[in-house]
Amino acid sequence: MRSGRILFCVFLIFVAAAAIYMALEWPFKAALFPLSVSIPLLILAGIQLLQLIAGKQEIIESAAVDLEFSSEVPPEIERRRVITAFSWIAGFILTVYLIGFPLTVPLFVCFYLRFESGVGALPTIAATAITWAMFYGLFQKLVHLQFEEGMLQAWLGL
Amino acid sequence: MFDAFIEGLFLVLQWKAFSLMLVGMGLGFCVGLLPGIGGAATLALMIPFVFKMQPAEAFAFLLGMHAVAATTGDITSVLFGVPGEAISAATVVDGHPMAKNGEAGRALGAALMSSLVGALIGAVALALAIPIVRPLVLAFGSPELFMLAVIGISCITSLSGAGARGQIKGFAMGLFGLLVSTIGQERQSGSLRFDMGMMYLWDGLDFVPVLVGVFAIPEIIDLTVRGTSIAGERPAEKLSSGVMEGIKDTFRHFWLVFRCSVVGVFVGILPGAGGGVAQWMAYAHAVQGAKDAADRERFGKGDVRGVLGPGAANNSKEGGELIPTVAFGVPGSGAMAILLSAFLIMGLSPGPDMLTKHLPITFSMVWTLVIANIIAVLLCLTVLDQLAKVTNVRGGLIIPFVLLLVFVGSYTANGQITDLIVTLIFGVLSYFMVLFGWPRPPFVLGFVLGKVIETYFFISVARYGFTWLRQPMVVALIILMLFVIAYPYIQQRRQRAQRISNA
């Protein structure tokens, strides 16, 4: 966890340094605001990094006003599930890119429910059909959202 | 004046106007639940339908829809951690943890009742302020709007963890948010910044893909990791009592709800200040109200006050935004700009006529806000029991549908696959922020306010040089900003002194 915290600080320092480097090339008006936020960001992330390297313990007082992940699951399982969840999300986006939204929606719901959630075949088919009907009726027919066609359709000229 | 007030009520209660308001409310209910398709987008879609309507009917239809969309946006925020509207993101911070603690009914009851109180206060403000609002709006030029946005940013002190390290992390995240807001074309010189050669970034990053990624993705990951329902292994809440508890909470903390509603009205009145500012300022104000460090620790973990404040501000700002729109034809937000086009379609010109010749129509808007919100909240309360049961359904069954909501919502921003990639990038980033204890609210505040701050700063300097810093209203706002920054420290010192005297 400590190395992760250090890496996150390094990431912030890198972002701030890159922003300063790029902003130096711009006209004064364009550079002023990015410079005036990235310089203090660099300093604050630097201070945080030094504190972490010096081994100062996180003080309970400094808990953020924000969500905290549950810690009931063993770290090994947690890591595996996080990777699985992000893989599904990345897979969803990749499928949208390849075959477009309208085809991805039923496919994603069907595959997720069947293979990730272990739902039976019939309920999966029913949920997929209902989701597709709602997606089609609401987003395509009622709201008239325009969805880009997938790259596969474009390549195949469909 | 009183006659016009009553005439306005009768205009809304005519069967055609009332029916159209109900139709608008139905649409608003649906789109409010869908992330990304906010009230403004729906107003734009519905504008073509108002051509054949009478003015009171058209405003009943449009405002009924807009008012309800703002209210139901809180439902997905609480149940799934997915902001129904980009501007209703602050409700997620405490609303969703309440759902995870098995208090979804209480959170929804509190969100809806505070929304109703906020909407009523906003409507009353609209009715009362129309004759006197002119000097207030005219007193707020670009320097004052700049300072108001800076005050919004200074709320970071309240949204960060206590102690020096908590503040360092909070300010760093606020600055990071400000830096992200600078992506795209700079408005003064036209230079492109951090565009990485991508045309998508020329306009900067849209709120919806970023905010949906920041708030929804970590919640989805957490739900996957836990492998349980949203409410976990906790026994199902007795929903009706939970909802009632939320309603009672609104009145237990009525003074907080009232103050946050006033914040919403005030920010709404000022054109260009942005709706998101109102919610975050109200949230920060609720955190500032914590009695001590232990009380403050409860925020972000499921404190009902963190739901009441943003809920009230979110709806009261609707009335506030209508004030400059009706009185001067100066829209307070994107949605109001679209509503302004409805005025023109109806052959009405906003301004003095709306306060004299067309005063009954102006009051019909007030009544629409009141009636639509009351009906919406009553309807929502009847179905809340069913809605809140979702938190006891196994996560694996909900996740694909929540992901669809997230990504379809994100896609509506620009209609490009890049929107989805932006959501994923900020989702990953936000996951690590939560994992390593870097607070997300300051990041969001910086991101939302960055453009406002930069734009008004340059306009102020171009118009006044640096003499604007000496303007009385600016000086007053600087003092207020210093107070907002110093308040958590003053509070800590006072509590320490109290502890010592008690010992």
Helix and strand arrangement:
The complex is a heterodimer of chains A (158) and B (503).
Chain A lengths: L1 H22 L4 H26 L21 H25 L1 H16 L4 H22 L8 H6 L2
Helix pairs in contact in A: 1-2, 3-4, 4-5
Chain B lengths: L1 H12 L1 H19 L5 H8 L8 H26 L9 H11 L3 H26 L3 H7 L2 H13 L1 H4 L3 H19 L2 E2 L6 E2 L13 H20 L12 H14 L1 H16 L5 H14 L4 H5 L7 H24 L5 H12 L6 H4 L3 H30 L6 H17 L5 H19 L4 H25 L7 H31 L1
Antiparallel strand pairs in B: 1-2
Short description:
The complex is a heterodimer of chains A (158) and B (503). By secondary structure, chain A is mainly α.
Which properties best describe this structure?
heterodimer, A: 158 residues, mainly alpha, flat, B: 503 residues, two-stranded antiparallel ribbon
Descriptive overview:
The complex is a heterodimer of chains A (158) and B (503). Chain A has helices at 2-23, 28-53, 75-99, 101-116, 121-142, 151-156. With 158 residues, chain A is mainly alpha-helical. Chain A starts with a helix and ends with a helix. The model of chain A has no long low-confidence stretch (mean pLDDT 86). Chain B is mostly helical and 503 residues long. Chain B has a two-stranded antiparallel ribbon with strand order 1-2. The model of chain B has no long low-confidence stretch (mean pLDDT 82). Chains A and B meet through helix 1, helix 2, helix 3, helix 4 and helix 5 of A and helix 5, helix 10, helix 11, helix 15 and helix 20 of B.
